[in-house]
Every structure is written in C-alpha cells, then in structure tokens.
Amino acid sequence: GDSVTQMEGPVTLSEEAFLTINCTYTATGYPSLFWYVQYPGEGLQLLLKATKADDKGSNKGFEATYRKETTSFHLEKGSVQVSDSAVYFCAQGGSNYKLTFGKGTLLTVNP
Amino acid sequence: GAGVSQSPSNKVTEKGKDVELRCDPISGHTALYWYRQSLGQGLEFLIYFQGNSAPDKSGLPSDRFSAERTGGSVSTLTIQRTQQEDSAVYLCASSSTSGVSYEQYFGPGTRLTVT
Predict the structure, then answer these.
(1) Which of A59, A64, A76, B114 is most buried per CB count within 10 Å?
(2) Residues of chain A with pLDDT under 50
C-alpha cells in the first residue's frame, strides 16, 4: 500500500538557520502531495501542496518541489523563526483522496 | 466562514463503555474523513464519506468502530466497548469535490482517553 516516509526528528535549530525535512512517498501514479503543520495546542493546517510532477508548493517562506524521479517532496525554509516550532507532516493523496501521512517531524527553533 | 468543528474536545471513558464523537464539516463540503492520531501509529485514515455513495471503511481497525453521516452533513464516529488502545486524538476533515487536489480542512480533534 501507499506509504510516506519522513525524517522523524526531533529537529532543533537556531533562529535563521536553514531547514530541510525529507519526505519520500511510494504511491504509483501521480498523487497530490502535501505538507501539514500542527502548532502547539492547535489543529492540523495545510502548509503547502503540489499536484503534479515538478510543481513547487510554497507558503510562509516554506517550499517543497514534487520530484517524480526521486519520489520526494522535501520541505525547505531558508531562515526559520521561533514561531515555526511545530510538528510537520508530509502526506500524499490516495484513492478517494484519503491522505496517507508520514509520522511527523517535531521542529524546535531556539532564539 | 466556520471551519470544521468537533465535539466533545475531550472525552474520558471507562474501558468497555461506548462513545460517540461528532463532526460538523464545512458547509457545502461533500467529502468527509475521519483520521486517528496516536503516539505509536501517527495519523491513520479511518473512514471516508462522499455524498450519497457507500463509505470507504477500509481504515476502520475493528468492527467495534462505525460511523454514519446523516443528511450529507454531520457525522458521528462510534466506538463500542472501548479499549485502552483506542486512546488517541480523533480528527475529522472535510473537502469540496472541486479542483484537483481536494484539499482537506481539519477540525481541532477529540482527545479520547480510555481508562
């Protein structure tokens, strides 16, 4: 079945550091790919998405590019802030558009 | 507009009791999903409703779990004879069926604790 593998972390960075969270998927075809974020005490929010190969999703300074050749959708940000501290989930859309999630990566950004 | 709402926000129940969790999707969204978020398993798909079609129940972990969606809107997830391993956060999401990616909007979740 479909599965998503992401860097489990936790990841601890200093403010303004560069962030990469790796994500790979195993679905066949061209699933839609997503990054969701869960801030402390809050619900799951869509951060960005990409629906076809070579698409780049971007939001709030975060970017991820849909790479069909490596089945990857790595999340990057050039300069993280303390307010980016959260759990990040990579996900792919499958049959009936249900989402298969990675296990989540806890990011802590220190001032 | 209003987002996805879920109730209760927290539920503590004794092992063996039945519980009902409620989800109000975004108005006009025809697709509704239930997921479970637990420490050991991450986020797992449970069940999917789309309009009047038969639901996709492929993620339900046992026959103690069931869900219904009345009038194409509100959904109730029922867990019978709860077990401690059912303790988790139960998330509901809804989406419209327009567009390519069917973006899902999540509710705040119901935290279920089985003692």
Answers:
(1) A64
(2) none
